[in-house]
Inverse folding.
């Protein structure tokens, strides 16, 4: 079981995560505390779950080899080397290309989920978190390259897991990505093709999700691109934002 009563946070200076109330989370973060990811299971990203992202493909969605829009969720794994927490510094591999910053709702699984119905899906959810799903900008959709999505630090998670009982409707949450000095990018979980319950049901129809696993709802279309030196925050609803920065790789001369 992955269970929490309120908000789960794992401060970088502490060996274990703890369950605290929303006020304590705010106080800890206001003091500038860095955090580890508050969930440590497998993270599954979801592609083409945003209506605008699918629409942007146009006729290409009907081209070979698939010849139709996907009928099942298109998933990929963010391996452990990608995990980073609140206030992390993430290396930009090529500053000319930059790094696309996808802000996604992370659905944290509370108990083993296999062949779950839509009606019962929420009973398998422990809570929700913010996931910064980063990637090198690319055009490959159905077969995303590991080197684009699995760089070190390319999955920033946190700062906390918010218990399910605190989130009345995960399918109507505002997502705001702010890169210092630029206009914020605003999206909403309501634009998802599969909502949270349907996504859980469709994924667990062909694979089992374990306690502590994180299933992302997907990255909104048009997510912004960040470069070396950028300070980024991602907020979902009224939760404390997830913050991190972009830095040059060692020996880059910056």
């Amino acid at each position: 079981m992955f269970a929490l009563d309120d908000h789960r946070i794992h401060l970088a200076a502490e060996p274990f995560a703890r369950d605290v109330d929303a006020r304590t989370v705010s106080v800890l973060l206001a003091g500038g505390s860095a955090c580890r990811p508050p969930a440590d299971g497998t993270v599954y990203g979801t592609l083409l779950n945003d209506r605008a992202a699918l629409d942007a493909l146009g006729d290409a969605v009907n081209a070979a080899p698939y010849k139709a829009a996907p009928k099942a969720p298109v998933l990929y794994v963010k391996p452990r080397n990608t995990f980073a927490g609140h206030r992390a510094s993430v290396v930009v591999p090529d500053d000319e290309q930059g790094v696309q910053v996808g802000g996604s709702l992370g659905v944290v699984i509370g108990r083993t989920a296999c062949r779950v119905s839509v009606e019962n899906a929420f009973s398998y959810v422990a809570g929700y978190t913010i996931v910064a799903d980063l990637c090198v900008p690319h055009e490959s959709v159905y077969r995303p390259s590991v080197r684009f999505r699995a760089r070190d630090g390319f999955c920033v998670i946190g700062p906390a897991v918010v218990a399910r009982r605190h989130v009345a409707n995960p399918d109507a949450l505002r997502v705001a990505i702010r890169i210092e000095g630029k206009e914020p990018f605003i999206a909403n979980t309501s634009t998802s093709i599969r909502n949270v319950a349907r996504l859980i049901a469709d994924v667990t129809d062909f694979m089992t999700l374990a306690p502590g696993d994180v299933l992302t709802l997907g990255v909104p279309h048009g997510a912004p691109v960040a470069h070396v030196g950028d300070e980024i925050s991602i907020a979902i609803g009224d939760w404390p934002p997830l913050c991190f920065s972009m830095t040059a790789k060692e020996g880059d001369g910056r």
In short: The mean pLDDT is 92. The helical segments are 22-30, 51-56, 146-149, 196-204.
